[in-house]
Amino acid sequence: MAFAVSIYFILLSLPYLTIARTSNVTLGESLTATDDNSSWVSPSGDFAFGFRRMNGTGGFHLAIWFNKIPEKTIVWSAKRDNLAQEGSKIQLTTDGRFVLDDPNGNNIWSANLGSGAAYGAMLDSGNFVLESNNSANTSAFLWQSFDNPTDTMLPTQRLSRGKKLVSSFSNKNLSSGRFKFELQTSGDLVLSTLNFPLDTTNKAYWSTTTAGSGFEVIFNQSGYVYLTASNGSVLQYVFENSISPSQFYQRAVLEFDGVLVYYVYPKSAGSTGGRRMEWSPSSTLPEDICMSIRQDTGGGACGFNSYCTLGADRRPICNCPPEYILMNPNDVVSGCKQNFIPQNCDAEVSPETDLFGFEDMTNTDWPDSDYEYFQSVTEDWCREECLRDCFCAVAIFRGGSCWKKKNPLSNGRIDPSVGGKALIKIRKQNSTGTSPGARPEKKKDQSTLIISGSVLLGSSVLLNFVLLVSTRLVLLGFNRRKTKMLQPYSVVPGLNLRSFTYNELEEATNKFNEELGSGASGTVYKGFLKNENGKIVAVKKLDKMVSEGEDEFKTEMSTISRTNHKNLVQLLGYCNDGEHRLLVYEFMSNGSLASFLFQNSRPNWYRRIQIAFGTARGLCYMHDECSTQIIHCDIKPQNVLLDESFTAKISDFGLSKLLKIDQSRTTTGIRGTKGYVAPEWFRNMPITIKVDVYSFGILLLELICCRRNVEPNGECEDEMILSDWASDCYTEGKLRLLVENDEEAKDDMKRFEKFVMIAIWCIQEDPSLRPTMKKVTQMLEGAIEVSVPPNPSSHISSSI
Fold first, then answer.
1. Backbone angles phi, psi at 466, to 5 degrees
2. Whole-model pTM above 0.70?
3. Which of 4, 127, 319, 463 has the most CB atoms lying inside 10 A of its own CB?
4. What's the rounded mean pLDDT across residues 415-425?
5. Domains of the chain by range and CATH?
């Protein structure tokens, strides 16, 4: 019986073995990435191979798609994590190579061939093949798309050991995502999460138990997907359907949310009287992904602090708990954050138990996120215990047991089998405090601050505050030499800033004994606040006592005191005492990025890319999310500081200029530091947020290459300027020269190449070609594709 079943399935798979040889791509033929929709079409017209433009990106995928349906659904793409630029060309060269070149003729992808191909063919199975000859009696595929899948399997396709499908990042972003369907070399077939953005396996959430025996996954024409042994016998079915291949198109897709879905689409869709047809899901795996994913690391099916419920189509629906919001509104699996100020953990302050309460959620849990567990207790006891504990974000009460959990919460799910209830701690509506991320909606008539400086970060008290303080000083008979501007330890109304006297800060710094750094406008010292349990701070003392120093002080006070972002250094207080102008900041124990990168041994590659993410997010907040748009104008490693966890925080908001209403640019004089200054500063062009983008591009190259932008002791002239050398290495396909001695970076060359491409986009001479920091952040994090950048000196009048 087993033998008969095996023969049955082999016969169903025969089209895979007897593929028509239609030589529709001959030596020398090519396609160019344009909007003319030229492609190589299979004999029946069912499939096409060519370029597809991705909406909203300007780039193209070299892809295979269903050609007869309106959706033009993509089933395969080459170099999926990097879009091809308009004008790129795929060609079967006269010497038999199959190569994708950018508009400048630089190779960006090629098929891995053992020898030269004689021709190529787009087959009716959806498989694009390259063959060594056109003999009707010999099958000699040198390369085929079926052996190099992305996220989709088609009828007659097979997965051998070591082959895999990797989900896309999102519904609209086809770059690599967070899930994998793989026939492991051990013989097990698994669905697993990835350690995104790396492509290493995290943990399986579905698997067969066929260690040593699983040989091949086959998708036959009747809708069966199954695992076979080496003798052809069926070990386990993945999907069991009964479909007529003459009536339906079929595909199996590992979706972006981790569910493997079998879809069908009627081939008679054109005769439905104009009614729009869609791909219909027929089978899914696993049955319940919300309950299947439970792992020690990672956020689960839906991201940290979110929870998963199963939809009618067996796909996960991701939501945030009460008073939590999505980290990224455009990405439902980005995770959630608290939309209120968390409970204070300062031992000297009241635990604020009267300001917090709970929202109940039944049958809800975040397993494996607990840090304390109690038995034989009541629900009221569980609530009070969580309320008194500032670490406790959620308590789970079930069957007389209480689990306390803290952020970030992982593996969130709602299901009747969970039982009990989750007690979500939230700040009461009538209490003070709003979300760290909450901010007023940006209006068109808001001003723009141009900010520059030299040593540490500043913050934004509004200009009105400066005027208000000045008025008060006049009324009090202010004497610059002797009279104090504000009373010690007072708090500025509406702002969480403390006013210090000069004597207090002199004592805190031991008479300014330990210097942390200095710059053109002042010096920074280490200090200890005795009245705050010896809290360590950084005290910036402005040296200039003339009008420039006064302007410096007002600038830093009027820049970011009302900003609140984890990647900006926090201003804690100030001193305006007689002739003394000082600013007090949080202490950054790991110093500046410059010291981190250039003074010690090479830092860890993963830590460097996390610093790149953090710096980009901080700039994105300043440019696009802060209520008052801020341009820094002096982004460089010295002005990015690192806390005890090596979190990057942008600093030094010194001299600023407040623009008139409705302005978003200025023609102010040159500011910044040599090597990081955008070209438009020297051309009397209007200055915009794009000057920060340019500086970030230089900093990004320094981060990933672990080299200074200007190396006077370079071995050759081409290496003197890192940005020039990196551009040349990218153009010539020699990126490994940039990380010659960096084994960690060389092991992650895919990401390294992407980051170099992003940096080249950032340092374009034409500001309009540079992306915004929001797009830079999305490209770094993989949310959008990175298209091939032009030469940095290009003056093409277009924008990314």
1. -60, -45
2. no
3. 127
4. 93
5. 21-148 (2.90.10.10), 150-167+177-190+203-282 (2.90.10.10), 307-427 (no CATH), 448-586 (3.30.200.20), 593-781 (1.10.510.10)
